[in-house]
Each structure stands twice: as structure tokens, then as C-alpha cells.
Amino acid sequence: MAAKFRKIGVLTSGGDSPGMNAAVRAVAREALSHGVEVMGIYGGYRGMIYDEMIELTSREVSNKITLGGTFLYSDRCLEFKEEEGMRKAIETLKRHEIDGVVAIGGDGTFRGATDLSARGIPTIGIPGTIDNDITATDNTIGFDTAMQTVLECVDRLRDTCESHARCNVVEVMGRGAGDIALNTAIACGAVAAIIPEVEFDEKACIERIIKLRREGKRNFIVIVSEGVSGYSEDFAKKINNITKELAENENNDRMWVETKFVRLAHVVRGGSPTLSDRLLATKMGVRAVDELLAGNSDLVVCEKAGEIVTVEIAYSQVLDRMYKGTLKDGMLDRFSPEQVEEMRRLIEEKKQYFKDTYTMMERISG
Predict the structure, then answer these.
(1) Which residue among 16, 107, 115, 131 is the active-site one?
(2) Structure pTM?
(3) Which whole-number Å values give the CA distances from 110 to 113, 272, 318, in the listed order?
(4) Other C-beta atoms within 10 Å of 102: how many?
(5) What domains appear along the chain, each with residue ranges and CATH number?
(6) What CA–CA distance (Å, rounded) separates 32 from 157?
(7) Is 131 a catalytic residue?
(8) Poorest-pLDDT segment among 41-50, 76-85, 261-270
(9) Which tens digits make up the pLDDT trace of 87-121?
(10) 93, 12 in Cβ contact below 8 A?
């Protein structure tokens, strides 16, 4: 089947994530090993519209596996959502004799991949996003590195918290998902995690901090997902003010837990990818090319229980909507009863994972 493919394109789209370059490298090397040429498309779907590309030889992708970000750059292209933009993009692909595309990114990237597939350009998606918010896969490219970056930053914050008997309320990225926040809270020994998936008991958290301070604990870390919008800074002020008032009432300044708010923001996106992300990106990149060469399209490459598998992009998107509560009437009609039941089971498993992991974290925090 490889002979029908003269050339494929590869792009990175949406938010950048560490490991995207490793995935591009794997796509290029795997395609080239089958005698298929590869074009790197700059700036995601925008580069497809405006014909901004580069040939990816084996040497062109050398030494890229260690780099963070994406050397193909990234953009969110609204023009590609319009029919005229789509037409220009397909004309560009045909002009370069590109027979298929590998698109690396998040859910928005996959919508574009489906549009290309529907118009006769076979396309495979690879989940590259630090947020780990693609429900069909256990892990996305960049997630592990982002957690490691948070952990390194928080370990440094803890040093100064210990020196001054302070608390840091640290907001981390993750969009609407609490994966980064929950996992890093456990790994750094935080006193609490605040995530969208589990109800947070604010009063109990503050009481825990006060109890631990009475017992002599000097440093406190609270990790908050950015998905809990507009909460982090106010909660930091609340901890600060309540403990300060307590200290004044008891005439014991040691009970004041001075509290600072920290937003790590986009520093979490950068940096050299971890071993785990390099391996995942490589495995997914190779599988994406193999799927194209086997004549398949409109799929997203996923990791489930340590295995690299594929699912239809439509399945992945509807599963996400079911999990996030944004499902619209008719979206399930194209799927069999067995598939719908499987989706519901996967969603319940993920929800239970968050509950169980959060409960464990609360038992050992402090």
C-alpha cells in the first residue's frame, strides 16, 4: 500500500507541547523508511492555506527530539474553518502532490483532520497537548513533561515557604482538566488540590492548614487547576486573612500562615520533553504513518493501558463531549449501542479514577 503515497504532510496545531518535535521526527523517519517524501507544514493549518512548507529529510529532523515547543510552529487558524480556507488548503496540498496528512494537536486539530479526510485527503491525528484532556487516550504528548515542570517549580517554592513559614497557592495549566493539578499535588506533597472534577471543601482545607501549623508544619502548598476559573488568587487571600486574624485573636503570630498566589502559566508548556513523552511521541508518530500507508484515515492515535491503538476521530470527539457534558442531540446516532455503552463505561472509569485518586491524596496530605 505504501506505493500509492508519494508524499505526506505533517503539521502541529493548537497549543504547543513538549514532544511535538519528537512526533514530527518519528513521522518523517518512518515515512522516509518506506520511500515516502515528507513535507513539514509551518504554522498548522495556516501554513497549508498560505503554502508555507519545508521538505523534511532525515537530516532536517536530526537533533529535534530534545527540543521543546515545535520547530514547525503552531497557530489557531480560524480561516481553515471556512469553506474558502479549506479550498485553498486542499489546493496547496494537491499542488505539492501531498497524498495524506498527519496532524498533531488537540481536539481543534482533530476537527480539521476530519474535514480534510471528508474532502479526500487521508488524515491521521496525534494527541499533542499538555492538558491530557483527550478522553480517548490515557496520555497525551507533553503531559508528562508539563507535570515534571510543575513539580520542579513547586519544589523550589517549597524551599522559601519552609524558610518563612508560608503557603503558596499555585495555579497550573490544564484548561478544563485537572490531570496536571491532581498528579502534581500528590507528587509534591501538597496540602490540597483544587480541580474541576471533584468538589472542594474549602473550610476543611483551611482547618487542615491551621491544625498542621499548630503541630509545627512550616510549609504549605495548594495546587489549583486553571479549570477552576477565578478562584486561586481569592483563596490565597482567604487563607492569609483567616490565619492572620486567628494569630491576632490568640496573640500568637506563629499561627499566621502568610500566603502567596503563584500562577505558573505558560512556563509549564516549555522545556525539553521527558523520556516518557519522547517515547510516546515516537510510538504515536510511527503508528500514524503506518495507518496512512495501510489506507486508513480519519483516526486518532491513542494510548490505552500501555498499548498504542487507534479510534475514529468522531468517536474521540463525541466521547469528549459526553465526558465534558457538552453532547448535543443526534451526536450518538452514528454509533452502535455497543459503542455508546463503551463510551459510558470509559467515562465512568475516568470519573471514578479522579474520585479515588483525590480521596487517596486527601488521606496522605499534610
Answers:
(1) 131
(2) 0.95
(3) 5, 25, 12
(4) 31
(5) 2-142+273-313 (3.40.50.450), 143-270 (3.40.50.460)
(6) 46
(7) yes
(8) 76-85
(9) 999 999 999 999 999 999 998 899 999 999 999 99
(10) no
